[in-house]
Design goal:
It catalyses: DNA(n) + a 2'-deoxyribonucleoside 5'-triphosphate = DNA(n+1) + diphosphate. 32% of the residues lie in helices and 25% in strands. The chain is α+β, with helices and mostly antiparallel strands. A 6-stranded antiparallel sheet has the order 15-13-12-14-11-16, covered by helices on one side. A 5-stranded mixed sheet has the order 7-8-3-9-10. The chain is globular. It binds thymidine-5'-triphosphate and magnesium ion (MG). Magnesium ion (MG) binds next to strand 3.
């Protein structure tokens, strides 16, 4: 099979043009269509698409999902709003400057979670080798399973897209390749309603003109370091020997080299665990004084503690996140003596981290998170003598990145997340 009609799902043998069976123009053609089996599926403008589905009068209007009037970021800009330059993760005020006629709707997380579960259920019918990355995206390994020989992976994927459209009323974009990195890159290339196929042979030429930040793991800091070496495009990276990148960047250098040539891992981990739980808030105005900043820690720690308890987890590392007035993100970590799920312990450690950062700088956002997660049964062993605060063996090294770095700006106020690819 080299061609597939996305509407009637039949094999298309003609080298170009519409589907001879149903006349649809939505035909995917690629020589590797029958062979490639690692996919990435990502819903299009997810929150906005759900809102448009539920209120058809919004369908042809620019829509931004976010808190109106707030200082936070837009969670989603629909594709109409994107024509005006508005983007997901852009500050709300900027989105509305670019697209003043946009309708703004506050997010309804419970609804998006329910839709996410429905999409996931459809994907699970194609394969149980499914690794969700967030509410609206997942990797799928279609190399085995009951349908593998009866149906090529591409047919399973087109079926998923068609069912999501017809049964749930939103659209997805699909990337099909031989590894995770290329599959994710592919799903992003022809949004919305894309179905993009890339094989490893064509990857180097396709990647060469792209900026290095398209590579997984290249945030603002790595991008700067690469730029200092004159490495701006993926093609520039392809020109460097692996040994050179390894010497300069260690293990990351090896991964950069592999990804630049389109190589990457294939392993899909269906049972990937939650790696961190966090909550954050954007202030009405920038704050610099410790008492003002610290006021947010209690409620944030409560939210984190509740999420830990809900998931029967405890955390051994407290993470404080701050965003400076000029949008730089700082993260600081404190390892606890014992894992905890108690809000006051989390807040105490976060406060000690905060004390070191309050030197007059102005911050627009603060977040508290827990990493190094363990089963809840390991939390808070009884302290026989006193309820003294736990010893925080603070890890001195923090991470500092600019916006657009490996850490995404305020995606949602509370998140349970897994690490990247
Ligand atoms: P994305 O898949 O990054 O974006 P999207 O689905 O809105 O648009 P695209 O078509 O480009 O995939 O994120 C999925 C959802 O996650 C998005 O609808 C809302 C939420 N989100 C946030 O809450 N904050 C953010 O900063 C971003 C980027 C996304
Ligand atoms: Mg999406």
């Amino acid at each position: 099979m080299t061609g597939l009609c996305r509407d009637c799902l039949c094999e298309v043998l003609t080298p170009s043009g519409c589907c001879p069976g149903c006349g649809s123009a939505r035909v995917v053609r690629h020589p590797g269509l029958a062979l490639l089996d690692i996919a990435h599926i990502d819903c299009d403008a997810f929150y906005a698409s759900v809102e448009k589905r539920d209120n058809p009068s919004l369908r042809d209007r620019p829509l931004i999902v976010g808190h109106p009037g707030g200082r936070g970021v837009a969670t989603t800009a629909c594709y109409i709003a994107r024509r005006f330059g508005a983007r997901s993760a852009m500050p709300m005020f900027k989105c509305l400057e670019l697209c003043p006629e946009a309708v703004v709707i506050p997010p309804d997380m419970a609804k998006y979670k329910a839709v996410s579960a429905q999409v996931r259920a459809i994907m699970l019918e194609a394969t149980h080798r499914l690794e969700p990355l967030s509410l609206d995206e997942a990797y799928l390994d279609l190399s085995e399973g009951e349908h593998r020989f009866a149906r090529p992976p591409a047919v399973s994927l087109a079926t998923i897209a068609r069912r999501v459209e017809r049964e749930i009323g939103i659209t997805v974009s699909i990337g099909l390749s031989s590894n995770r990195f290329l599959a994710k890159l592919a799903s992003d290339m022809n949004k919305p309603q894309g179905f993009t196929v890339i094989d490893e042979a064509e990857a180097p030429a396709l990647l060469a003109p792209m900026p290095v930040k398209r590579l997984h793991g290249v945030g603002a800091a790595t991008e700067r370091r690469l730029a200092e070496l004159g490495l701006h495009t993926i093609g520039d990276l392809q020109g460097r020997p692996e040994a050179d990148l390894l010497a300069r960047f260690g293990k990351i250098g090896r991964a950069l080299h592999a990804h630049a040539w389109g190589r990457g891992g294939r392993t899909i981990s269906p049972d990937r665990e939650t790696k961190s739980i966090s909550a954050e808030t954007t202030f009405e105005r920038d704050l610099s004084r410790l008492p003002d900043l610290a006021r947010a820690l209690g409620p944030l720690s409560e939210r984190v503690a509740r999420a830990l308890t809900r998931n029967a987890l405890a955390g051994a590392t407290v993470v404080l996140k701050l965003k400076t007035h000029d949008f730089r993100i700082l993260t600081r970590h404190a390892r606890l003596g014992d894992p905890t799920a108690r809000a006051e312990v989390i807040a105490g450690a976060a406060r000690r981290l905060l004390e070191r950062e309050t030197d007059g700088r102005r911050f627009r956002l603060i977040g508290v998170g827990m990493a190094d997660l363990r089963p809840g049964s390991e939390a808070d062993p009884p302290d026989l003598f006193a309820r003294s605060p736990p010893t925080a063996r603070d890890a001195p090294a923090g991470k500092e990145t600019g916006d657009g770095g490996s850490e995404s700006p305020q995606r949602t106020a509370s998140t349970a997340s897994t690490s990247g690819m």
